[in-house]
Each structure stands twice: as structure tokens, then as C-alpha cells.
Amino acid sequence: MPQLLIELFSEEIPARMQVQAARDFDRMVRDRLAAEGLLPEGLKTFSGPRRLTLVAEGLPVAQGDRHEDRKGPRVGAPDAAIEGFLRSTGLTRDKLVEKDGVWFAHIHRAGRPTAEIVAEILDQVIRSFPWPKSMTWGRGTLRWVRPLKRIVFIFNGEVVPFNIDGIESGDVTEGHRFMGSGKSFKVKDFDSYRDKLAGHFVILDPEERKDRIMDGARTLCFARNLELVDDDGLLDEVAGLAEWPTPVLGDMDPDFLDLPPEVIRTSMRTHQKYFAVRDPKTGKLAAHFLTVANIEAADGGKEIARGNGKVLSARLNDARFFWDEDRKVTLEQRLEKLTGVTFHAKLGTLAERVERLEILAKAIAPRVGADVAKAVLAARLSKADLATGMVGEFPELQGLMGGYYAREEKISPVVADAIRDHYRPVGASDEAPDTPVTMAVAIAEKLDTLTAFFAIDEKPTGSRDPYALRRAALGVIRILLGSEARAPVRELVADWYKSLRCYVDPGRALYVSTRLTTGYLGPKSRAPSEVFQTYVGEFEDALLEGKPYVVSTEEDFDIRFDRTAQAGEAPEGEVQYEFRPYTVVADEVLSFLADRLKVALRDQGKRHDLVDAVFALGDDDLVRIVARVEALDGFLTGADGPNLLAGYKRAGNILKAEEKKGALPAGPAVGMPGAPKEEGALIAALESAERPVAQALQQEDFAGAMRALSGLRGPVDAFFEGVLVNSESAAERENRLRLLVQVRDLMERVADFSQVTG
Q1: Number of domains in the chain
Q2: Based on the domain organization, do 53 and 70 belong to the same domain?
Q3: Which of 387, 402, 410, 731 is the most buried (most CB within 10 A)?
Q4: Do residue 263 and residue 304 come from a single domain?
Q5: Could you say which DSSP state residue 160 is in?
């Protein structure tokens, strides 16, 4: 069957855009073909430095005739509605068919040539292509990532007539800018296109370009007893920079090896797109680099290597300058600069954020078994490297450089490691911290990010997450679960609200007004008095109940209460910052973490409804929640779980129906004279299960609690088979309803089984 070949040839396409451009090209053409009833047997796209290519196999020569029965307005609808329907169908009123009081239009469309349809599709695709950045050129109005030069458009061996903004379609393309013949050449189909490109030093497939890079690089390294440092991200990028990628091994001054290896690699990668090379015997970086040229040089790349070596030396000299200068100033001395750096307009400066991190780290440290003093020091110095020249030049080295500078200052290695790793985990492949001090600071950093932005109502919406809150949430989850640290989420959020003391300084006070307490935490609280210590607990309780404000004040006091104020009364002084109430934010943060946890557990094969069933209990300890989910999953996949769940739902349905009539009877069920044996057996089973379930839950033995519940399966099944709940005797009916309430309540101490969908 016919083949479709399209090439959009332009000036250089940025490497970072190529992969997504190929995906978008595939999606846009495939979707539009499907809408026209044209389904290719195969469709593939390719991206490169100067071209986007699409090949589709097995398209028909022409579209088949299309028939559609379209439902319209009801008979007797206003004329305007009917006329609108007629315009959309292209029919006249006499062509409508009435069926069951509704007008229907039978639409017949004759099939068109595929080439004609694809030409229309290509015009739409080019004009609406979602480049992150695009441009116009010359006097035209067309926008493309770079000036569009040629269009190859061939269907079934023939050029499809096409013109867009003066660019005519054809069967002519060109090869490598430098190594090719310099002449354009014709192609007739995809095979000839791909082969002729290769003959003119263009490798079409980016995967083939990556294979060529890796094979050549490893060969060069092997010949010099070296080892390439793998970098998948860099490989993707350089494969998009060269049509005929040719690895070249170069040398650098070995004196630069005394720089931190991350600095060397970052300088190579960021500025020059070089791969690092290491000595396989020591595992340390070697005084070499590997670059990828876009030509095969006559001298084997010697001049390329020499020139690139000079450029690299200049970059590394800059890095050495930053390294040497940065070490002349301590991290502590750099903190003052953070007072002039805005973290967020609604959250203040980086210095204020650092103080929040200190307060949070102090509160979190005992929960993860960390040394409090070391955790606080690490939190205090964690952002100091943002004021260094090295991080100013290489922002991706945040934290890492702080760790190096801390070691240079002979600060405790434990603290230095925490400074270095407090951003981790930064991605799914990154390991979560597993040492106590680092865990405390890392949780504090992510908790501050999450809670602060929720507190000012800057939450993710849809796919937008400008402050990476989803990543922060997953980071908290991974650290807590990996360490099995017991840190209830609501307590963590409460710790953040208490950290709002960071805003209290000369000229500012913290204000909150609730039903019981209206008060100000004033500038003198920085040096707490006896009065402050006496009443601070009351203020913090109010802080967790009301809406906190940071207000301007000219007065100098430690703490002040207004016992005559009404709840929610506006503060005195200009409001600088305001935050949503703790109760609202705590619930939202917990729900947000629950959603992220569902994703994480789903990736492990766990059902989201089980997470809902556990979260419905109101628990906010993530470690305990996961343990409950694991136990619930095991219970429901066992022999007794599904049957007991069915019994629970049957009981729940009966109770829901009764609740609509009025309040359910209270108290435990009792053995009644003449009651069926199944009723007595269920009462006895509940009494037997009550204590084991309670003990197991107290010991957080959730699997044991499930096993205790399993003993109810038989008695519950027998009860529903042998006992009529809706007895004619009011006393019997109430007793049996109480019994079902007991079954429901006991099971819901373990999980909210109403949330389970299975």
C-alpha cells in the first residue's frame, strides 16, 4: 500500500526541543488522520539538528465514503436551533428525518483522495505546531522554531502539491552542511531518502546517532585505558547537535583535578557538552574529556581536541577562581547576604526561610533520631552556598558546594553531609537520605516548601506545578517510609506554623485572633522574658486555630493579649504577610501527600481504594498508613477477606437504609431467648474478636488485627443466611441492628471498608 514521506527542513533546531517535536509531529498527524478515517499500518517520526521527518506506511489511496446519522433538536424546537443544526450539517429542512420526536440528519460524504486530505493536515500541523519558542523570518507570517527552508512531501511515489507561505513542496533535500556534496538531491521514498542521507553524512535516526557516539567513545577510551562517565541526558543532547556525530578524545591540564569532581563535570557538561572520563583503576576523573564533533576531521580530530582543550581550560580557570575566592568567606558569614534575597513575594526573604528551616529541623530531629544541635546547624547553613560565586555560575551545584565548603571549614562531616544532601531526593532515580541529621534537614526543606506555598494558596493546578510541590511531597514520603520515621503530618505542619516566629523582629509582630485568644508576638520575644515563657503556649495554641498575620509595629514588647477582642478581629498595623489557617492547610497538605502516596503505592501494585480506606480513619502517620495498607491488601487477597467484605457491605446497606428512617439503636447486642443460634454465634464471635483486634491495633500489628477479623467471616455468613434482620418483633429487630452496628464499627477500627471498591 502507499507510503507517505514528509520532511520539514529548517535551520538548526535546538537539541532540547527535538525529542518532543518528534512526539508532537507523530501525535498531530496521527490524530488528524484518524479523524478522517485514515489509519496507517505504521507511522514513525524522526528528529535531528535540521529536520523533522515522518513516514507512514499502508495508507489507502483515497478515503472511503462516510455515512453519519447525527442527532439534532427535538421536533418543535425553536427555529433558531433547527437552523443552526442545518448549517452544521449542510442539509435543508426537507432532508431531516424525524425519529421518536427528534430530528436526525443522514449525512453522506464522498471519500476524497488521501493526498488532498494529508495536504490539509500538514498545513494545520505546521501552522499550529507547539514549539516552546518560535519565530518569523523575512516578510512571511509563518512561525517555526527556525526559518523553514524545504518541504519534502511524497505520497505513493508522487510529489503532493503543497505551498505554505511561499515554500513549495518537492522531492528534494540536502545532506550534511559541511561534509556533504553541497548539492541537493532527489528522493522517491523513505528507503532512498534514508540511504541518500547516510551517503551525504546524515544519520536520520537519533537512536542510531546515540549508538554511534557511544561505540566511538568507548573505543577511544579503551585504547587509552580509560572509562567513559555515562551521562544519558548529555548523550540525548549531543545526539541532537550533530548529524554525523564523531567522538574525539582530548586532554586537559591535570592540575585542574584538584577541583571537586562535580565542578569539573558540570563545567564540561554545561558549557561545552563534554563527557567526563575516569581512570577505571581508581574510579577518579582523568585529565581527559570526550567531545562530539559534527565532522570527520582529516587529522583524526587532533586540532578539534586541541582547540576544545583550550576552551575547557578557560572554563576551568573560571571555576578555580570561584573555588578559591569562595573559600575565603565562611558559610556563616554569607548568611547576611540572604537577607537581601527574596524567596517569594508572599513569603519574604531567604534569610527568613533559613530561620524556619532551623526551627523545623529542631522539631523534626528527635523524630528521626538526629542530633538536634547538628541538625539545626546544618539547616542554618544549608542555603549559604546560594551566596557563593560557584553556585552563582553553576546553580545545579546548590547544596553540593555547601557540603564542600563546610568540609573546608572543618565543620562536622555529619553536618557537611546534611548540607550537601538536603535537597535529596530530587528525582525518582535519586536515593533518599538515610542518615538522621540529613533526614531531619531534608524533611524540613521539603516540608517548608509544601506548607509555605499551601499556606499562601499557591497550590499546583492540573499539570502546573511551578514550585515543584509534587516532587517535595514525594521526597517527604520517601524519606519517612525509607527510615520508618514516626512523624504525623499534622504535627509537622503545626511545627511549620510555629516557625512563623521567623518574621518577628524589630518593626514586626506576629498576630492571631481566635475565639479564645487574640494576641501579638512582639520583637522582644527574640530574647524571651519570663512572661513570654508563661504565655507562649497559649499564643501557639491560637496560632494553630486562627489565621496568622505578620504586621508592622513600632512598639517593643514580647507578647501581648487583647482579652476584649472579638474572634477574627483585624490586626493593628500594616499587614505584611498573611497565611491561611492551620486547620485548613494541614488537611490540604495531608490530602496532597495522600494523592502522592497513592501514586507511589500504585507503582508497587497497590490499589488506590485501599489507601482511601486507611486515610478515611483520619490517621496522618505515613508509616502506619502504609503498614495498614499492606495488611489490608494481604487480608483482601486471602480466603476470608472478600467474603467478610461482602458481609460488611451487606450490613452497611441495611444500616444505611435504617438511618434514613431515624437514629440507629445504641448499645451492644444481647443474647435473647429463642434467638437463632446464628445470632448468638455472631455475638460470641464479636466478643471474642474485640480484645485481639484492640490489642493488635495498639501494638500496630495490623496483620494481626486482620487475622482477628477473619474469625468473623463464618459467623457473619451464617447470620445473613439464617437470621431475618427485619423481624416482626421490634425488640429482635433492634437487637439485630445493634449487632450489625457492632460488626461495622469493629471492622472500621481497622479500615473504612466502605471505601474498598472490590
Answers
A1: 6
A2: no
A3: 402
A4: yes
A5: P
